[in-house]
Design brief:
Serine Threonine Protein Phosphatase 5, Tetratricopeptide repeat, 528 residues, 0% strand
């Protein structure tokens, strides 16, 4: 693996060298030697490449172990007192981080300043951080830029990035051009963040003319070095075919790499892939984890998906509450699909006190906002059963019909029942049979059950076949009380009479009713 990683890094470096203009100035040999000499002076000195991450949040409470014993700290303090600039730098780090000594930002700043004024390049970089972040001194962007620029001028690789960032913040044509030049120097010094920044410059025309081809070259190199945002850029490029040949497999590979490095946008893209097994091994757990991260990042679709998971798995109060919480977040963010979830929560008392009026309001808003078939199905059900509204058979029929027209398969069976029983419309067994068949073809047990009844009696121009009807009912009787009742009836009389089977289904019905009773009692007790 190490060998492969080395090959990858070499390849990335070749990309950089190819992409950079031939006349880009590298730090001189003398400057490089000076930097290396200073780093050799103190073996305890941290590499500067660690500083940008290590001190990203300088006021954190985390203590960094720089010294193995208090004796080392005493020796370094003594050397600093004698004017050793490298020791001053190390002692300043200890004061800043609280490693082996009480945290003291003012003392850290003073030591950095003294070492920087004496020409110590590492201290110049550190002093720039102090002025940028207000460590032991009031923030001062001009002074921060001065010291970053000075360290960069002496060839410190990571100072290029900091100085360039500050020039970019200042804005203006000359400052942007200066930033671009510093990014180039950083890229020549093999600083991954500078390589990525160059890609951004070429992409957006910052300090240089836009050049999508060059942007891709630098982004590819930065991605090979593990810059997650560059990996995300390359994923999108291969997905859309922007400046590269469209390649779904490469796009997926880059999305996976970016997600592994924590890019939430990549996880949002991959979540449905893992949910459906699209190009990756199906993993509901990974899908949910990615949806949840997306939800926490403010993505409304992910909030709705996370809510769906919690709604389905709401055995605990915390899970039920989270379902309602994320549906509400998504709805407040304008994701109208979450209105359906809110309606279900209020109707069933999931994560919130049961409120049929609110459930009906959300279903109604969902229908008017989306025109989705499922929305009209829920609204029809409310009108049929009197959920948050008076029972209106005609409105129930109209909404079931609208849902069916919009290809909502859930509406086929109840619409068939409307035609069968004359609910909100004149009874029509032929039309009822048509919708029961559509529901059955869609795999809806309610449709299968109704179609079996029609098959038993030969209704709606369907030839009678009692034996096949009973067989179909048995196959779909689990959890279907009406099917059990009819099986008892059919096995008790007529050409399908079978006393033993009738007794069997009576026992199954009793078991089912007992389970339902226990479930209702448990839910009522929980709500009380």
């Amino acid at each position: 693996m190490q060998h492969l990683r080395y090959i990858g890094i070499c390849a990335a470096f070749l990309c950089i060298c190819h992409a950079l203009p031939a006349n880009t100035n590298l730090p001189s040999g003398n400057e490089q030697e000076a930097v290396e000499e200073q780093q050799k002076e103190n073996p305890l000195l941290l590499k500067d490449r660690d500083l940008s991450e290590e001190f990203k949040n300088p006021k954190r409470k985390k203590r960094v172990k720089l010294f193995s014993t208090n004796k080392n700290l005493k020796l370094i303090s003594a050397r600093a007192a004698r004017g050793d600039v490298a020791a001053m730098q190390e002692l300043a780090k200890a004061c800043e981080t609280g490693a082996g000594t009480p945290q003291n930002f003012q003392k850290a700043f003073s030591l950095y300043k003294k070492a920087a004024d004496s020409g110590y390049i590492n201290a110049m970089y550190s002093l720039g951080r102090c002025y940028e972040n207000g460590i032991g001194t009031p923030p001062d962007s001009d002074k921060a830029l001065f010291w970053y620029d000075k360290a960069a001028g002496m060839g410190m690789a990571h100072a290029y990035k900091n100085a360039a960032d500050m020039y970019q913040k200042k804005g203006g044509k000359e400052n942007l051009k200066k930033a671009f030049e510093l990014f180039e120097k950083g890229a020549r010094s093999y600083v991954p963040s500078c390589i990525y920044a160059l890609g951004c410059c070429y992409e957006d025309g910052i300090g240089v003319d836009k050049d999508s081809s060059k942007a891709v070259e630098f982004m590819r190199a930065a991605a090979a070095l593990g810059i997650s945002k560059a990996q995300l850029y390359m994923a999108k490029a291969y997905e859309s075919g922007k400046s590269v040949k469209k390649d779904a497999a490469k796009a997926l590979d880059y999305y996976m790499k970016a997600a592994t490095r924590g890019e939430v946008e990549a996880k949002i893209f991959l979540a449905p892939k893992f949910e459906n097994g699209d190009g990756v091994a199906k993993s509901p757990e990974t899908a949910f984890a990615y949806y949840l991260e997306g939800a926490q990042a403010g993505d409304a679709l992910c909030q709705k998906k996370a809510a769906d998971f919690y709604y389905t798995n709401n055995s605990k109060d915390t899970e039920a509450y989270r379902a309602f919480f994320w549906y509400k977040k998504a709805a407040d963010a304008g994701f109208v699909g979450a209105l359906h979830g809110l309606g279900k929560c209020y109707e069933n008392g999931v994560g919130i006190e049961r409120n049929y009026d609110k459930a009906f309001e959300y279903y109604k808003e969902y229908a008017s906002s989306t025109g989705d078939g499922l929305a009209f199905f829920e609204l029809a059900r409310c009108y049929e059963e009197g959920i948050g509204t008076a029972i209106f058979p005609i409105e129930a029929f109209k909404n079931y019909q609208k849902a069916a027209e919009l290809k909502c398969s859930k509406a086929y069976a109840p619409l068939g029942e409307c035609f069968d029983k004359g609910i909100g419309v004149e009874a029509d067994e032929v039309k009822a049979a048509e919708y029961f068949k559509m529901a059955a073809d869609a795999g809806d047990d309610r449709g299968v059950y109704n179609l079996a009844i029609y098959l038993y009696y030969g209704k709606g121009k369907i030839p009678s076949d009692p034996k096949q009807a009973v067989k179909t009912l048995e196959e779909h009787a689990e959890g279907n009380r009406d099917a059990m009742v009819h099986l008892i009836e059919f096995y008790s009389d007529g050409i399908t009479a079978d006393r033993r089977k009738a007794e069997f289904w009576k026992k199954e019905l009793d078991k089912y009713d007992e389970l339902v009773k226990e479930s209702i009692e448990a839910k009522d007790a929980k709500e009380k």
